[in-house]
Design brief:
Layout lengths: L1 H7 L13 E6 L2 E7 L8 H11 L8 E6 L11 H7 L4 E6 L9 H8 L3 E4 L3 H7 L1 H9 L3 E8 L4 E4 L10 H12 L3 E5 H7 L15 E5 L10 H4 L4 E4 L6 H10 L4 E4 L3 H9 L5 E6 L7 E3 L10 E7 L2 E7 L1
Parallel strand pairs: 3-4, 4-5, 6-11, 6-12, 8-9, 8-11, 9-10
Antiparallel strand pairs: 1-2, 1-3, 7-13, 12-15, 14-15
Helix pairs in contact: 3-4
C-alpha cells in the first residue's frame, strides 16, 4: 500500500478534480504490476495496473489489488473500475480509504463483495487521507481547501516600498512556488496586487498542461483593462460588481470543482480570509534579505493553527501552519 501511495503521486497536478489514486497488483507474494491515475480522462489506477500486467505477460487471475481509494462503480470519463477488477479475475482487494464522493458512497466495495471478492478497508487510511486532503475537503464541504502563501524578509516585511524593490526570494524558491501553483485549481489575489505588480499568476517554471484559474477580488473595478490576467488568454474570474463576499466566492469555486485555492494576495486580502476563519493552511516563506522601506505584517498564526512544520525552499526557510 505504501508503494501504491507513492505511485499515486505521479498524477499530482494532472488529475484534478479527480483525486490521486495508486494501485499495486500482487500475485504469489510478488508485485506484478502497478498503476496510477495519470491525467484527467485517462485510465484510472486499477485499469492502468491491469493493463501494465497484461503488457508484462502476467495473468491477473487470483491477484490481490492494493488500492489507495475505493474503486469507482459508476460511468464517468471512464468505465467503472469495479468492472475492470472483476474482468481481470482479481481475488482480493485491499483499500486504504473509502470514497466519500456522493456518486460512490461505498457502492464500489459492496459490488465487489457481492461478486465474491474479498475486500478489506482501512490499510494506511490516515496516510491516504493526507494525500487526498483537498479532494476529501471538497467532498465534505463543497468548497476548496484554502492555502495562503506569502513571503517576508528577515524582519517580517511583506513588501519593500523603495524604488529598487522587486522579487526578493531565490530562484529555487520560485520553482517551489510554481510547483505549488500546479497543484492548485485556482489562484486568488486582490486588486492592489494586480495594480502594483501586474502578475501573470501562471505555472511557468515546471512542466504542466493545465493552468490554474486566476481569481481577482476587485469590488470597485479598479484594475487596469490591460492587466496581464485579463489579456493573456488563460482563465480569469474578475470579481467586481458581482463580488458578494468570501463565503459566496468559495461556494462558487466549489461549484466549479476547484478543490484547492491558493491565496497569493497581500496582507489586506489575507487578513480578510484569516478573520473569517477561512484558511486551512498558511505557508510562510522567510528570506534572509532586509527591505529598505519595509511593510510589516503580523498575521498571529500560532493562535489560529494547531500544527506547524518546517522546511526549506531553496535558501528560504518555510513554516507551514495547518489546522
Amino acid at each position: 500500500m505504501r508503494r501504491a501511495l507513492e505511485v499515486a503521486e505521479k498524477g499530482r497536478g494532472r488529475v484534478r478534480p479527480n483525486p490521486l489514486v495508486g494501485c499495486v497488483l500482487v500475485k504469489d507474494g510478488v508485485v506484478i504490476a502497478e498503476g496510477w491515475h495519470d491525467h484527467l480522462g485517462g485510465l484510472h489506477a486499477e485499469q492502468m495496473a491491469i493493463h501494465d500486467a497484461e503488457e508484462k505477460g502476467h495473468n491477473t487471475n487470483g491477484a490481490i489489488a492494493y488500492i489507495t481509494l475505493e474503486p469507482c462503480n459508476h460511468f464517468g470519463r471512464t468505465p467503472p473500475c469495479t468492472e475492470a477488477l472483476l474482468w481481470a479475475g482479481i481475488s482480493e482487494v485491499i483499500v486504504a480509504h473509502k470514497d466519500p464522493n456522493p456518486l460512490v458512497r461505498g457502492d464500489g466495495i459492496s459490488v465487489l463483495k457481492e461478486a465474491g471478492i474479498k475486500v478489506e478497508n482501512g490499510l494506511l487510511e490516515a496516510e491516504a487521507a493526507i494525500q487526498m486532503r483537498e479532494f476529501l475537503h471538497w467532498c465534505k464541504y463543497r468548497r476548496p481547501f484554502v492555502t495562503v502563501k506569502i513571503a517576508t524578509d528577515a524582519n517580517g516585511s511583506v513588501d519593500d516600498l523603495s524604488e529598487e524593490a522587486g522579487r526578493f526570494t531565490s530562484e529555487d524558491c520560485l520553482i517551489k512556488v510554481h510547483e505549488l501553483r500546479k497543484d492548485c485549481g485556482a489562484i486568488l489575489v486582490g486588486s492592489n496586487t494586480v495594480i502594483r505588480d501586474d502578475p501573470s499568476l501562471t505555472v511557468r517554471l515546471v512542466e504542466t498542461d493545465r493552468q490554474p484559474l486566476r481569481v481577482v477580488i476587485d469590488p470597485n473595478n479598479r484594475i487596469p483593462a490591460d492587466s496581464k490576467i485579463l489579456n493573456d488568454g488563460f482563465g480569469t474570474r474578475h470579481l467586481s460588481d458581482d463580488f458578494r463576499g468570501l463565503d459566496a466566492m468559495l461556494d462558487m469555486l466549489g461549484d466549479l470543482e476547484i478543490q484547492r485555492l491558493l491565496v497569493e494576495g497581500g496582507p489586506t486580502t489575507i487578513n480578510h480570509f484569516l478573520q473569517q476563519n477561512l484558511v486551512d493552511e498558511f505557508i510562510l516563506v522567510e528570506s534572509d534579505v532586509q527591505h529598505s522601506i519595509p511593510v510589516i505584517a503580523d498575521f498571529d498564526l500560532s493562535s489560529r493553527f494547531s500544527n506547524k512544520t518546517q522546511t526549506n525552499w531553496g535558501s528560504e526557510s518555510v513554516t507551514i501552519y495547518s489546522r
